[in-house]
Amino acid sequence: MSPRSARLARLSRSVTFSACHRLHSKSLSDEENLKLFGKCNNPNGHGHNYKGEELISILAGGIDPVSGMVMNLTDLKQYMQEAIMEPLDHKNLDKDVPYFSEVVSTTENVAVFIWDSLQKLLPQGVLYKVEVHETEQNIVVYKGEETTGK
């Protein structure tokens, strides 16, 4: 295969952010929320350090034959700053991020928020997945999937 032939690669970049939140659904009573979310329903909230390789965006695409890159990492760093760090880092997700005023701030929904935010900035079709490690044991991978109904 010549160097000019199309090759696909996956590129990942990780970021670190800290945020607090309270798991609480407006659709449930206080008692139901406490039963469902336990200590994560604390009225004063609780925090997480999403650090190191704990929040990862992965792009998939063709390796440009001229630049040799799927995407310039400087550009990707700026997109992640705008889509993730600015809205989420050192924030109370429920009070500071309008998206979570109506959506429970679970790690699943944080992953969806990040996916949607990155999709607005990245070239179409390049975002492959978003992986959010809330803790070493709790990890969510989101690939833009939607359910088709029950």
From TrEMBL:
EC number(s) reported in the record: 4.2.3.12
Enzyme class per UniProt: lyase
Keywords per UniProt: Lyase, Metal-binding, Tetrahydrobiopterin biosynthesis, Zinc
Listed GO MF terms: 6-pyruvoyltetrahydropterin synthase activity; metal ion binding
Cofactors named for this entry: Zn(2+)
Record keyword Metal-binding present: yes
GO CC annotations on file: mitochondrion
Pathway(s) where this gene product acts: Cofactor biosynthesis; tetrahydrobiopterin biosynthesis; tetrahydrobiopterin from 7,8-dihydroneopterin triphosphate: step 1/3
GO process annotations (BP): tetrahydrobiopterin biosynthetic process
The family this protein is said to belong to: Belongs to the PTPS family.
PANTHER family: 6-PYRUVOYL TETRAHYDROBIOPTERIN SYNTHASE, PYRUVOYL TETRAHYDROBIOPTERIN SYNTHASE
Physiological role: Involved in the biosynthesis of tetrahydrobiopterin, an essential cofactor of aromatic amino acid hydroxylases. Catalyzes the transformation of 7,8-dihydroneopterin triphosphate into 6-pyruvoyl tetrahydropterin.
Full protein name: 6-pyruvoyl tetrahydrobiopterin synthase
Phylogenetic classification of the source organism: Eukaryota, Metazoa, Chordata, Craniata, Vertebrata
Gene field: Pts
